[in-house]
User: What shape does this take?
Amino acid sequence: MDIILQELPQQLVNGLTLGGIYALIAIGYSMVYGVLSMLNFAHGEVYMIGGFTGWWVLHYFSTQNVPFMHASLVITVTILVVMLCCGMLGILIERVAYRPLRGAPRMNLLLSALGVSIFLQNLVLTLQGAKVKVFHISHLIPESVRTFEIGGVVFSFMRLLVIAISFGMMLILSYVIKQTRAGKAMRATAQDIEAAEFMGIDVDRIVMLVFFVGSALGGAAGILVSLLFTQVDYYVGFQAGLKGFTAAVLGGIGNIKGAMLGGILLGLTEALAVSVFPSAYKDVVAFTILIIVLIFRPWGLVGEKLPEKV
Amino acid sequence: MTKHQIPNTKYQTLNTSHPLIELINVDIFYGSMQVLFSISLRVFQGELICLLGGNASGKSSTLKTILGICKPSKGRVLLNGQDTGKLKTRDVISKGVSIVPENRRIFPHMTVLENLEMGAYLRNDREEIRKDMENIFDLFPILRERSLKQGITLSGGEQQMLAMGRALLSRPSLLLMDEPSMGLSPRLVDQQFEIIQKVNSMGTAVLMVEQNASMALSIADRGYVLQTGSVVIEGNAEELINDPMMQEAYLGGGDGDV
Ligand SMILES: Nc1ncnc2c1ncn2[C@@H]1O[C@H](COP(=O)(O)OP(=O)(O)OP(=O)(O)O)[C@@H](O)[C@H]1O
Ligand SMILES: [Mg+2]
Assistant: This one.
């Protein structure tokens, strides 16, 4: 018990790191589900491609003769470029694989999403090979700041950075959704797509926006994790997608706040479970939670219990 | 079925200008299923027109055609004399058409205020929107009281008012109403019809879909009757009320329901 308490601050940081990442992925699942009532199984691959895109951006910075930039600027630019690319990829996926099937049975959309997922994974495998891509970023973050100690507890700088960025993004998104015209149009479209059209909202554009934002956040999660573990593989999308999906269901699929909450809770639970059980059980936790939620509270923690999605 | 036409002289001679909206021999399909068969219909400025007909006769589809959501495979839709064939729904709405949909369709998890804002989605004259919102709150005081409540928490009557306020916030010159009396108590129906008349008397043309034929005709100028996607009767309200075919098919049985 003492050991557990001693490790608590660190496990909390680990939990919030994982939680922030899961939440970013879950948001994309939930936003897309909100407007199209479909599970975008390609979302995990967008996350993976976020990692690879980030690798290439950093590679460009380190090999081309880019004028000296401060490390924080390099990381910021990398994340922004990744988000832009993944956002565009999301729009492309919707346009090519989902829009032609609008109005078709949901199973068709699901199969199309699986197809996109397999295609993207194999595309990256073909282009990048099966070998892990390692991030050489030691020059960006000097040894001296990589960890620091407060009151006998060692914190990892990268983890705190991931927490700050992911929670910052969630705050910005919450504001946009709540207050801006586009955010309100997104909510209206998610709640009643036909009524939104009656208001003159261009729902095709809103669906594009949803895919852009969701995929950009998924890509951001991908590069953040890659920076944290300094590597990315072509197959990481599947696992990440499942975790994000679990978090989205836990919070209440279709609900953006729920996705954030579900992600954070899932991350914390996993981190705390690791300090009690052997770490091999980490993934079991997520799926146990998924199954329990699906059985007892399929509408999630904060999702609305609607008889039928209108 | 032979078309039973009652000549309508009043409005056609009164209005020398274009009708606000005019459907000319419109055919509408959903996929391969045809739901409207050569529909012709016109609404002039300031008129209150009702569109009657039984279940699945194509009333809602007619409204969706006016909004540009359904596109005719044959025939034309003219809005102020301009063909809407290439217009998007949002263009039709900015040109002065709005709808109170069947079942109200307010946004359940947005506040009353946000629902109203959605009605003004295509406008950007902030000050004027604020004034219009005040007017809506004067027209429906209960909405002011509930302005920060979620749509889903409103009663049926309040939701109907919200849907109406939301539609008015786009400043329509033509207001489409799809079964405004549905699911309301008789007292609320009376209130709803009074408000429709009031809005109409302030200059907004209304095209109202109703199953409650006698109620609708009692406030309408003219009416059209749809049957399996075709207009089978049209004419002035008084003439429709006294029309033998109407009496038998739509006004008989005492309660006026179809
Ligand atoms: N989106 C759609 N896709 C396919 N068929 C549709 C669609 N909307 C309506 N229909 C069909 O078109 C026909 C006319 O429907 P519409 O909703 O216009 O009738 P209505 O007169 O409004 O009926 P109600 O009184 O039930 O509201 C019906 O047979 C309906 O099933
Ligand atoms: Mg209808």
In short: The longest helix of chain B spans residues 186-201.
